[in-house]
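Thread: pyridoxal-5'-phosphate complex, take 2
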Amino acid sequence: MQLSKLVSNLPPYHFAGVQKKLNERKAAGVDVISLSTGDPDLPAPAQVVERLCSAMQDPENHRYPEYRGMRALHEAIAAWFERRFGVQLTPERDILPLIGSKEGLAYAAMAVLNAGDVALIPDPYYPVYITGSTNVGAEPYMLPLLEQDNYLPDLESIPPHILKKARLLWLNYPNNPTAGYADRAFFEHVVEFARRHNIVIVHDMAYAEVYFDDFRPMSILEVEGANEVAVELHSLSKTYNMAGFRIGMLVGNHELVDAIGRLKSNIDTGIFRPIQYAAIEALNLPASWIEQRNVIYRRRRDLLLEGCNAIGMRAGISRAGLYIWAAIPQGFTSREFTDWLFEQTGVLVAPGSNFGPRGEGYVRIAMTSPDERIEAALERMKAVVAK
Ligand SMILES: Cc1ncc(COP(=O)(O)O)c(C=O)c1O
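Output below.
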């Protein structure tokens, strides 16, 4: 069959292949420990599951949902946003519920970019920034995220001829995969930069609510004037351990929110209402639910940090997000190391190069397994990785 250029050029989604690899080794009797994906192993809150089940009982909820989400969900999102970030959003104008934030990334690219435009993409990156941009014919311009710059891009290094064609800047803090984070000074600079060059910022904040110690990630919308140039994506996947529910939201600049709503309503028909009710229940949970859940992740983070650094896999402290970004031993590419480690130990981590050329030399290790599995993985790694 003759397929479109768009799908012919589209690479397979990397993490779709990981599952196959895991299943093959499991079928061969290997006790696999997967620390490769950011898929929370902890359960969604009990109240959320109960609300989902009760909403399922009402036949009214079996009908087509609202294209742009229920008013009650908009109100719950606005109230959560104000409590968490001190930013007021207008329901239905500044908010668009999504079937997970991933689809919002692809839609944002479609809504902003034309063929021949430049998309500014931090490297390493979440893969959809690239495919979303190239699917609509835009050219990626990579912005290295380097350890010595605290994984923040150097916007002032972008040459003028690139800036002239640049229409969209992707950002993601807390960052996947580097565990980098952004402070107010950075966001203020980015907003000023975007206004100066007429560039749209899409800030992907999927890890907003996984944070440690006294650190609290901020929203770019807290910066004055940000809502003129920026939208932000949030997700209940990592925030409330609801990855399988598929629910997230786009917030911010209302023109872009509206445009994406128009695009989306021509492609899907909204979010199953019981899932919307479940999301409202989650968003209304007290902040203490998040704090207690984050204590579990913090313990895992500390185990991984200590274990990796002890075997010479240097890793900086993750202040937020679900990952440790660790340097690999000399003599391997990150893919070779990952394959070798899996072969030797049954421990699967993600090669840094999956996230772009600047990820070479690192692996990403997810905190999504219980302490005892992390301890077992570290024991196995210690046995094969020379210091
Ligand atoms: C940086 C980043 N953005 C977006 C997503 C998508 O999340 P979801 O579609 O589950 O909301 C992920 C998922 O891993 C992610 O790591």
